[in-house]
Amino acid sequence: MLHLKNYFTTIEQQELVELARKIAAISPMMTPVMPSGNKFNCQMTSCGTVAWTSDLTGYRYTKIHPVTKKPFAAMPDELTLLAKKLANLVDEPDYRPDTCLINYYP
Predict the structure, then answer these.
(1) Predicted confidence band at 43 (pLDDT cuts at 50, 70, 90)?
(2) From CA 85, how far away is CA 46, in angstroms rounded?
(3) Residue 74 burial (10 A CB sphere; 0-12, 13-18, 19+)
(4) What is the DSSP track for 14-73?
(5) pTM of the model
């Protein structure tokens, strides 16, 4: 496990939020439900080739956004580069991300 306290500057954090907003403009945030019918305490979306989701039928990965019925937004280069940079810190130089889950806790 790698703990990166204060890894991002305030400006970098703001840039990540703006990037997440751009992704959400293509693949909107939604509040998933658990198989029990209880709602999650967050909203979520994803980008990349697949996305994690949950509904009354269970937890799974999907290629189609449950609301828009379209593929999720492409993984932005900025997130791919960030993921590779972080993977290198834990000696995973060949890591190639295919999805990024974005949670929003109001």
Answers:
(1) very high
(2) 20
(3) middle
(4) HHHHHHHHHHHHHS--B--B-TTSPBPSSEEEEEES-EEEEETTEEEEESB-TTT-SBPB
(5) 0.90
